[in-house]
Every structure is written in C-alpha cells, then in structure tokens.
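Re: the pair you flagged

First of the two:
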Amino acid sequence: MLLLVALILWPVSQQARADNRFMPVSAIRPEMKGTGYTVVSGSKIEPFSVRVIGLLKGSGPVKDFILIKVSGKIFANGGGIAAGMSGSPVFIDNKLIGAIGYGFQNADPTYGLVTPIEDMLRIWSYPSHTLEPEEPAVFYQGGLKSYEGVAFVPRETAGTGNGHDDKWLQARPVATPLLVSGLGERAFNQLYPTLTRGNLLPVYTGLAAAGSGGNHDFQPKPGSAVSVTLVDGDYEVKSIGTLTWIEDNRILAFGHPFFNRGPVDYGFGGAEILDTLTSNVFPFKMGVGYSPVGRITEDRGAGIGGVLGSTPEFIEVSVTVRGERKTKRDHYSFRVIQDEQFAPGLILAGIMDAVDRRLDRIGAGTAKVSFEIAGENIPVIKRENFYFGSDIAVASIYELTRLLQLLSGNEFKPVKLTSVSVGMEISPQRLSAKLLQTDLPKEEFMPGEEFIIYQRLLPYRGQEVKAPLRITLPEEMAPGKWILSVHGAGYDTSIKEDNGEKEAEMAYWEESTSLEDLISEFLSTPANNQLVAEAFPMDQSTELGEDQEETEDDHDSEMLMEEFFLHDEDGERPDSHVWTESTRYFLTGEDQVVITIIDPNTEEDFPLEEGSSGLGEADPLTEDHEPSAAQEGAAKN
C-alpha cells in the first residue's frame, strides 16, 4: 500500500520541481521576497508584497508550510489577511509557490501561512482525508523569535487555548465568507447552524439574489475573485475566495479545505468584491457570487479543485404559496447542491422564507400543503397534509422536514434528490377542532358489520359539530371486547406522552427493513385533518370495575388505562384495525369507547338499539357535511 501511495504521489511532486512555472518548497529560503494577488474591490486583481519569514515541517495532507508577512497599499487601512483572501496565489521570481491558506489568532494579521503548490496539485490526482494537520508544524528554517512553530486550531475552537502554550503561533484557515442573499433574516437565523461548520463565516447580506448576471465577463486567472455555490436562484448561498491556479480548464483555490468532504459537486463561478470590511476579529470581503460556469469536484485538506465548462446537478426546488392577501408574486424557485448533509437545511430555509415573504407576517394560521419529491433510488413521493400552528411558516414544513431527514439519513440506499415541488394554501383562520364524545349506534356488533359512528367536535371558538366515520368490521374480527380509540391523526395511541415524538421517529427506523418500506410507512400515516378510529382487542382478564365503568363524564379522559389493552408475549399490542375520514379541521384529542363483537355461531339476531343512528337508507357520508354559516363564522374568528 505504501508503495502504491508513493507511486501515485511521485509524479505530482516531481511536476512542481520540474515545471518552471512552480517553485518547490525545497528552493524557498527565509527573506525571499515575492508578490501575491487578490481582488479587494470589483473584479480588478491587485498585487501585494510578500516576504518569506520561515519554513515549517507539517503533517497530514500538507507536508510543509511557508510563513509569510504581507504588505502593500491594499492593507493601508490597518487590516491584514482578510476572509476571502484564501487561495490568493503567491509568486517568487514569477514562479508560483502556493496559496495563502491560514492566518493567526494570536499574532499580527499581516502574517499568514502559504499552502505549497506541490500539495495543492495533489488535489487533482490523489485524495487526502485530514481536515487540518493533527500535529504542530515546527520551524526548520527561519521563523519568528519566541515561537517554536505553528499549532493548527479549528475555527470553532479559536480563542480557547486548545492546549498549546505561548510558544506556538495559533493558525486557523483563513475564513471563507459564505454570503447569503435573497433570504429573510429569520430564515437566515434558522439556517445559520448548518453553515457554521469548518472554515465558513456566514454573512447575512440583506441583498437580493444576484442571479445569473456577470459571468459573461469572467475570465479566470490566478488572483481572480471566485465563488463556490451551494444555492442559486431566488435565494443564494455562495462562498467567496480567490483562484490560485488554472490549467487546461482545471482550477485550484482556497489553500485549505471548504467542508473537507472529499469528492463533492458544488458550483464554481466568478465573483465581484463590493468592499473589504475591517474587523477586530478578521477583516472580510463582502461580495457577490455569480452563477456557476464550472464545478468543484474535490474538497481536500490542501484546498479545493474542479473544472470549468460543466456545472453541477442541482436539486431543483419550486414553491408556490397562495392565500390571505393579494401579491404580485406567489412562486419561488431555487437550486440546491446534491449533498445529503447540507441539502435538507438549505431546502427548508428557502421554503420557510417563501412563506414569510408571501404572508408578510409571522403568526398563526392553517395551511393545506402538498409536495412532490423525485430522485434516484426512490419512487416519486407525493403527499398532502393539513397544518395549524402558532407559527404557520414553521408548522407547514414539519412533515417535509421529517421526510427529508428520513431520506438523507436512511441506512439502506443513497438518495440523490432531483426535484422538490411544494404547494401551499394558507389561511389566517384557526381551523382546528378538539375531539369530544363518540356516539355509537349500539354497543354490540357482528364481524363484517358496517355502521357509522358520529364524533362530536368542538371547533376553535365555534359550536359543536358531528363528523361521521364509516366503519366496516373485518369478517375475521375475533369475538370479545374491543377498545375503539377515536383520535386526530397527530395523536398516536401507541406512544406514551413522556416518550414523545423522538420514540415515534425511532419506530420508523426499527421497523423498516428497506428504503421502500421506510417511505411506505411514512406515507401511510394519516393526514392531520383525518379522523382516525382504531380498534384494539381488550384484555378479557382485566374487566372494568364498578368504580371504573364508563359514564358520559369519562369521554373527556384522554385514554383508558394501558392495562386494559391486550398485549402479546413480547409485551406489544397486536395490530389494530384502522378507519379514517377527512374533515376540514386540524384535529386534536382522543376519545375511547368499548364495543363488543358477537360470536356469529352463538348469536343469530342482533337488532339496533332504540333511537340509534345506524346505517340507514340515506348514507350520511354522501351528504354535504360542511359546517353551517354560524359555524363557518365561528371558525373564522
């Protein structure tokens, strides 16, 4: 294996030594002077002076580092190496030595580390897997007085000491500004935790998305401002950096990892720098990234690499939001990178922001949501549901959030999404109802019998209504007592309240044996506006005592005691029988009644109870059960 690695790396390292365009580390000495290039405003590449201070022996994907000090008029405002300068090429005697990749948190900001071009060229031919050198790099030529070398500090732990004493310079990758445009501040705050990984510096620009303009003038060359695209369209997420090298439509940039994800497929394009902003922590470039003209295919320890002329396969996302007020626009679209780790958060932030923009408010409401998801290794997934919440923009994406998490985290197959389409109809009304009493036509039934129950509902600030639910008992239903649990779809009687939603999610993983099974289980969940009746066999050895017999007052209780359910040898309940019927309300609560199934071999005649509302000639389920005008008005309030 070691011989194979050596054979792979040898041609690359020899290329830097033999190619007159590059200067290998072995030829560099302290006090050598050179020139770096970057963009500080617009797209004009400007030079700055560089002096070599020392050389360090590293470990991991980068074997050597070059300590430099920068100067020049671009630093006249007292700043130093800025976020967005990562990848800035440095030349000595017109030969490329590498790219600025690291700055310091405990030293003059005009000092930095150059990642040698020898290590960056390996990105094109050999993968490395380490995010940053695990061990400190020690000076072996030159250096700074009082310092033994450089300790590499992850950005997220900067300023914590990290176990290194004052004899070590603490270096971290030059932060990469990740500019978010076309997104509201609330959605940005929701997205922020997803973006604060690795060396990224999320910046809320407050600007509209730039779109596809600007790339027709993009002529990449070392020192050009470039962008890496995660999201493109009506909202954008693009990082800003500097191009180090281009050869035969292949590019190298950054001089440090982006996410260090190895093989990736991100967008690559030009950028325009609006200004370089000073900061007590780290100055950074504010700019605009343009639509991709290439793709980043490698995200490695020494930098990023890719090609021009082809663009990534994005996830196409479209969102249509209607209702509540008239606007000139109700459709939004954007494209998201193919990355299971980051795509769900990027998609959901854009959808939530589309709702916020369409409603122009944050608050309660009711939403009818439909979505369709397509991709490789999955069937086309279609789903429609009904939501109510005190923050309807958040509530409306709840189920889509769960599904994207299930797909991206599934243990069966990789899922490559190609499109996500979402349609919403939102009303400010609170169309929710609480379940009250269940009215049965009788208490004893025959297997295979068909009847209708009426569930009393209390709409929010409205008057009581009755919702019919047709039940057809299975022919093989066992004689005996059964508990009929009637509830809204959001209430799972098999999950105790103290375990909550987390245990419900775990049930998906534990019970599913394939991706198809996982998706099927998800889609079989009743919608939130569906009235659900489930019949569970009752433990015949545990009868209700006199003080536990049901009365009308008992209908307000949430659930009969767990001990009355029949359990199998493993302590689990047997499969239940389920019936559903849609309503116009988001349903909450539960009621339970006991029914008796008669043995057909012992009972021949079974009349209806006097005054019951069994299945008559006029099927009430075929009639219009919309609320009355008074009830409609109450629901709107």
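Second of the two:
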Amino acid sequence: MDQHDLTCDILVAGGGPAGVPCALAAARLGANVILCQDRSVLGGNASSEIRMHIVGADCSGGRGAELETETREGGIIEEIRLDAAVQNPQRSASMLDLILYDKCRAEPNLQLMLNTAVVGAKTQGTRLTHAIAQREPTEDRFTIAAKVFVDCTGDGRLGAEAQAPFRMGREGRNEFNESFAPEAADEKTLGSSLLFMGRDMGRPVPFTPPPWVRKFTEEELKHRPHGKPGVDQSLEYGYWWLEWGGQLDTIKDNEVIRDELLAILLGVWDHLKNGGDHGADNWVLDWFGFVPGKRESRRFAGQHVLTQQDLQESHAFDDAIAYGGWPIDTHPPSGVDVPDEHPCSQHQLDYVYDIPLRACVSEGPRNLMFAGRNISATHVAFASTRVMATCAAIGQGVGTAAAYAVKQGIEPADLAADPETMSAIQQRLLRDDAYLIGVVNLDPKDRARDAKVSASSAQPRGGAANVISGPTRSTHGSRGVKPERGAQGLHRWMSEPAAGLPAWLQLEWDGPVPVSEVQIVFDTGMHRVLTLTHSDAYAARMKWGQPQPETVRDYAVEVKCEGRWQTVVDVTGNYQRRRVHKVKLPGPISALRLNVTATNGLDHARVFEVRVY
C-alpha cells in the first residue's frame, strides 16, 4: 500500500446520519475537516444499502400538533429532509445518497474520503494525535493528524483503537437505578435487521426459497404484523422486526448475523408467498439488503452518562447541544427467536429532553468526541438516543463544538466546564437553526434584536415582533417541552389571510446599522412527519414530492440605505426553512423590509425569525 500523510483541524470518522451533519457543521464554521467513510455511500442505516427511516423526537408525527408542538429536528437534518422531499419525489434510496454526497462536495473546507475505513490510532499522553485510515480499493493508507477527532462510526472503531473506555451490553437495574433495565447486567444488545422492498407484478409470480431459509408459521409471527395494508406491515417495504443477533457480539459476529438475517428475511417472504393468503401472489422481491442495519454495539464512557431518569425527567443540562424525544425503545436481543415476546417495548416520554455535550466527550483522550448511537448513555437511555434524526442533531451539535474548540484553542474536554464557552456554542447552534430546549437567541451581534418591527397585517398571537422574540418554534403543546422549561406562544409572524399577499414585515432602527448578512427562518410544518420512506402508507402521512405548504416561496428583501429603498435579495421557488443572504451595501441602513409575494400553498405568510448581521 502507498502511504500518505494528511493534516486537518477535525477528523470525523464515519459518514452516517451523525457524521455527515457533524462534518458539515464544522466545515461551514471554517474548520478544515476530513470525513472518512468506510462505505461507498453516505448515510449509514439510512443509505441505499440499508434503507431505514430517519426518525427522531417527533415520534413519526406522534409528538406533533400544528402551532403547538413542533418537535421535528431543525438545522442540517431539516435542510436534508426538505431537499429530499422536493428533489426526490420518486422516493429513491440512491437519491438520498446523492443529496448527502452533494452536500459534502459543496463544502470547500471538507475533504470527503469514501471507501476509507479508520483502522488505527496514535496517542501521546492524554491526547489522540493521529488516525490511521485505509482505502482497500486503491491500496492506500493514510496517517491523518488532527486537533480534534470525532468518532461517528457507530461501532466506535476510532475510539476503541485509541483505548477510549466504552461499555457494551445492558447495565443491571441497580447500577443507575433504572426500572427499565434488566435485573442483572449482561452483554446483550439490540439486534440488527435486514429490510426488503417488494413489487406488484400484476400477475401471479411463484417464489421458491433457497434450502437454507428459515421456516415461519403464522403462530410464530403473531406479534409481528405482516402482509396487511399499513405502515410497517405491507408488502412494498419491511420489516424492522426482521431482527436477530443481539445475543451475539454485533461487531465480531456481524457476518454470522448477516447470514442468519438473510435466512430470516427470505423465510418471512416465503411465508408471505407460500404460507397462507397474504395477498402476495403477484408480489416479488425487488430489493433486499445484504448489510445489516445495526442498532447497538459500543457506547463510549463520557464526562456524563445519560440515564433513564435524565430522559424521563427532561433534566436540564447547561451544556445541552441537542435534544431527543423518541420513546425508550427496547427490543428482545434474540429478535424473531422469541416469538412469544413483542418485537419492541416502547416507553413513551412525556417531554423532549436535553443531550449534553459531556455525553459526547470522552473521559479518555481529551480531544476525542463522539456523535451518534455510540454516545455516553446507558443501554436504556441509548434505546431513545439511537434513532437517526436524534443522531443527526447530536452530530451538528458536536461538529459545532469541535469547530469552536479548534478556533479558540480549547481542548474538547474543557468545553463544558466554561459557561461562556457553552453559551457561545449554543448561540451558534441557534443561529444555524438547531433547537435547544429553553435556549433563546441572545446573540449580541444580531442587530434585528434592537429593531422596531411592524407588518402589513398580523393574526392574533402572530404579531410582527415575534420574529425577534427568541424561540423559532412552538413547543408548549402536548408532549412538547416540560412547561417550566419552555415559553408559550406561536413565535412567528403570521400575516392576515384576508389581507392576502403580498405581505410585508419591516425592521427599523433609530440609527444607522451596518449590514452584511440577513438570515430568515420560515415555517416548514415541523409538527408533521417528514422523512424518506419506501412505505406507501407512511408516505401518505407526509407532504412528500413537494415543498411544505407553510413555507414562503417567493420573497424579496429591501433595505433603506442612504435615504432610498433598494432590493438586495430576490428569491423565487424557495422551499427551505433557513435562508442566509450575504449583502454588499455602500453604507449602513436604517430599515429593512421583507416582502412575501407567494407561499407554497398557505394563504398567508409565516416567518419565525429575521436576523441581521
């Protein structure tokens, strides 16, 4: 193999749902980033190799109510979802691969290295100095020096190579006083799954299984819905409960697990086709995975270990960098081998909860961070934090913190202890449209906060001043934010439908204000589920193949400079939530006006926030 030496500010290992937002966040903030991904595509369990839904705190729409409970993740994962909804109306798995790949290629500070696995590490004292990566197809080996290392590999390969402490398996009930934990500790984990996609050929097509497939009866699948209309039980896509292997080592035994999962998947399909009337006579397998979708393996030991109580109580952390809300969702480790057990046990959480930075910083090497399913959490807490949209929110939070550490010359291990540092990281996350419970815009550089705001019209509770009120979503409704931790209100300007469009929103200042950037956050219906799915019934719950109807489509920004109004931004066809516009002006301004001329379907304008820098 040829040897290469590389240097960067931040090395991100793993290009899954945590690694991609992590790398993008850090690169967009000016850090020089290398992203190593051991597969030929990005996306991890959401990629075309595995094809699992990206779900998160909104519980697939179960934790959502318009203008009351908007818990879909914001920031980079929302940007990706909105792109996918518009650019991928055909719901192609490969199109999501392309969207992630394109976003990485578009960042000048990000070097993407596909088919490149991190296989080793070098340390000096209490610091990680180099990652060793290998790209087999090109017979190249890389020694990568970095200031900060982030393990987003899922399995925790980089951290394990660096001798960072980790856990694997289930803690006993008494270790953290967790009522959902097993009575005694063991080495079992959640199992892995293979998924399939079916196609209706319009005529009967037989299926003859290979001789090594498993055999299933209707009695053995009594707790596992199949062959019926609806989400997670129809024939065109399934089934997450095709699960097995948690009783083994999900890293070392992955090949055995893959082989058995193929036997299980094809055995279930054989049952659908040949084991009674499931309406499957005309159906064929169109695709099925050969890469197990892994739920659990290593979980690193961090500066804080998230527990069941942290989630159930929505404990407030001063160093919060993300949030979650998926149920505590445990599965029997042996999966389909225990037919008398339900395939999952979901303990619903009353409120969304904080994920602290300390759960993402190693208690080993001082410059090692992690994001994704391998963060510092008990098995019980992990059962909620593991889902991919939550991993993406964590990834953006960790990438933002890593970029701050590099810029300020601070070790990641020291970030959480300094309130001023944490405030700066959190304010940057809010500026990039991440959501943090109870944290509002206090950015002293945002001149919009000093402005007098007016509008052409406004609905009750949807006044113009809401765009500088701090929050950028409503979370006061059922199962949103714990009441003492959130603020009531719509937190957006809503023009009066009877007044029609155009509608305008205006910011005025008492004195001249220099401006180089205008940021606007629009409404994208974050009470509603939105994720790429290959399930027709699930897709029917969404506004897919189109922009979200609440979102402003056409708008212009005018500024009053040197006593006259001039248009500096003119946009048509918008579908994104967060838009940032760089502007060049001959001098300071005294007023700014946002003119909305069309939405993507709603009869009035909605704007959460305007920032001016």
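The mean pLDDT is 98.

-B.
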